[in-house]
């Protein structure tokens, strides 16, 4: 059987970590959790996850934004898709319509809390496929992703 | 001739001093004298500060309003009179008008002769001579301190709505998440999972209840009801109230009281609110600390000295660094990320001030925090 995709959940809210862990495990993913940016970053480096679920507004020295920067500036990690999550969306300056622009907090997708779990699941699957394409492990032909053998 | 029968009084620039235009309406005056006097009086009475400066920034003329609030001023440098500064102002509108003969506007903070600091909007306009030169500039300032205060309040209101919406969304996430876990537990007959979900739901209900109380407290003006109460009893009751929550978090919560403490006059409801906010913070600080295996919160009531008693809430949680310590009483400052409006300590501050007390914070990163409030024994 194929190995399940590995997702790291980084959030300082233990309830959110537990809920997401339950949800993702029940949908066939392997999960790891970290309660702050620093631990999350160490875990990312060690475990090389397939996707990162990141609370961008953790109040710690090493915030979600810092995790994002560190991942994207590291050639070995930059292909890992990141889903940013926060209770604060537009108020925080995160504008989903501007994702990917220069000088802007870059995440592949952004979800505001409360997270719509079904939409999240669809997006996770899409981004996991995208991650494989980025790593050269799959190819995209006419919007369909084919995993290389 | 001036006649005391014809006086028009005005409260000037709103600073409470009464002035009068004498003779303005006196039909016995000769028309020329009337004109001069009337103009002079009108200028003195303008509800703003008016002065004329020469190129060296010396004040040549000032109206009565100016003199009343900034002193005589004539012959002195304007920056000395307005700001008590030997240096010219960085963005001086008068200077700009001398340079380009145009009207300029700027906002300045000045100090009145009473020492009171005020925000002003300043207009400068050129006085042209026959050959079109500008030998002097007229400067007119209006006190906009009240407008500035309103502006600040509106800004805080805006911020508060943004932060409240953030917190409500987080609590909603907790409720949704908890309900999902309960559902999955029931679906699989996994009662342990269902109970975990229910705990999440309960925690978030408690969270939103506390938030609603704090919003109410910070937004509504209520009269304090002072009654003779026992600080020991307050502490014991509040510890009982939080016992179950603390237990669920794996934190030991206990009280320490001093039996010889007398009854004191306090508004019971607000003091309970204050202690609840401290306990919430203490529990949160313990939950965040992953280094220590044992966490405890101690709520104390005791004498501080002969005239004062104190409440203390001590935790051995994550503690605070200097920056956090200095920001905690700011409006809407929160370290709780997903949980906390930053209203809690603001409400504490309000309560302590209302009681004429004092808050002290002792903290060390990694070690823990103690919040102490001191009140007079009355």
For CATH, the homologous superfamily of chain A is named as: Response regulator
The third-level CATH topology of the largest domain in chain B is Heat Shock Protein 90
* Share of residues in strands of chain A: 15-25%
Query: How far is the N terminus from the C terminus of chain B?
Result: 62 Å
Return the CATH class of chain A: Alpha Beta
Strand proportion of chain B, as a percent range, falls in: 15-25%
Please tell me the overall pLDDT of chain B. 83
Q: What oligomeric state do the depicted chains represent?
A: heterodimer
Regions with little confidence, pLDDT below 50 for 5+ residues of chain A: 98-103
> Rg of chain B, please?
31 Å
The CATH architecture of the largest domain in chain B can be given as 2-Layer Sandwich
Total helix count of chain B? 10
Task: Give the helix level of chain B as a range of percent.
Answer: 40-55%
CATH architecture descriptor name of chain A: 3-Layer(aba) Sandwich
Any idea how many domains of chain A? Answer: 1
N-C termini distance of chain A? 14 Å
The beta-strand count of chain B equals 14
Shape of chain A: globular
